[in-house]
Amino acid sequence: MSLKGEMRRLRELDWRELDIKEAGVWPWSLQLVCCLLLLGVTFLGIYWYLAAPTRAELERAQGQEAQLIRDYRSKAAQAADIEALRDGMRDLEAHMALLQEMLPTGAEVPSLLDSISEAAIDNQLSIDFLRLRSPVDEEYYIARPFDIQVHGSYHDIATFLAEVASMPRIVTLHDLTLGPDSNSGQLRLSMLARTYSYRQEREQGS
After folding, report:
1. CA dist 121 to 21, 28, 113, 146, 160, Å?
2. Residue 64: how many CB atoms within 10 A of its CB?
3. Cα–Cα distance for residue pair 188/206, rounded to 1 Å
4. Could you say which of 15, 24, 96, 176 is the most buried, measured as most Cβ atoms within 10 Å of its Cβ?
5. Which residues, at least 6 apart from 130, have a Cβ–Cβ distance to it below 8 Å?
6. What are the mean pLDDT values of the chain's consecutive 10-residue runs (206 residues total)?
7. Using an 8 Å Cβ cutoff, are 106 and 205 in contact?
8. Secondary structure, 3-state, the chain
């Protein structure tokens, strides 16, 4: 069929009387246009159904790309320093083990009090009292406070405090009160001391 004939058929076509059931007898150019339109609608439908969700997911992934790159660089830097971190952890564990050895167990506290008494006697101090208080549970350790009151000369008291502070077991000194003793004419020292032990020891013993 010639192009001129086809154009003539299109001009003579009554568009109001077109029936989809008779599409087989439409001019071939009209059939081609309808096929192209149908193909375009089908393609758009497939894109909307399949490609659009994937595209949204791709956009989300692209949005996360910068954060993932930062995380990767951070982890890569940590991995590069892993040996230094391990060395630091070993040093910290060794330091912690040393500190643990300086903390008396509950059974060693009476021996610590005896050492403090001996230090007072060696420095020619008179002991008024040395009383152990009830333990105080903290989150990671148990504080074991005790009250000390001695009297003697200023120099002897200072030497006694230095010896208590330098004992192998950790002892901290608090609430120091130094004043004259009206009975002996010397100085009286009253203070609160604390030593510490781990909660783990208390939990195992309970």
Report:
1. 122, 123, 12, 18, 9
2. 11
3. 39
4. 176
5. 113, 116, 117, 146, 147, 148, 149
6. 62 63 64 80 78 73 81 80 77 72 72 90 91 85 90 93 86 89 85 82 44
7. yes
8. CCHHHHHHHHHHCCHHHCCHHHHHHCCHHHHHHHHHHHHHHHHHHHHHHHHHHHHHHHHHHHHHHHHHHHHHHHHHHHHHCHHHHHHHHHHHHHHHHHHHHCCCCHHHHHHHHHHHHHHHHHCCCEEEEEEECCCEECCCEEEEEEEEEEEECHHHHHHHHHHHHCCCCCCEEEEEEEEECCCCCCEEEEEEEEEEEEHHHHHHHC
- Token couple for 97: 């083990």
177 contacts 157 by C-beta, under 8 angstroms: no
Determine the Cα–Cα distance for residues 197 and 105; give it in Å rounded to an integer.
6
Chain position carrying tokens 């005790």: 146
125 burial via Cβ count (<10 Å: 0-12, 13-18, 19+): buried
Q: Would you state the structure tokens that stand for residue 180, as one six-digit string?
A: 């004259």
Buried residues in 69-85 as b, exposed as e (16+ CB within 10 A): eeeeeeeeeeeeeeeee
**Residue intervals in the chain for CATH 3.30.70.60:** 104-205
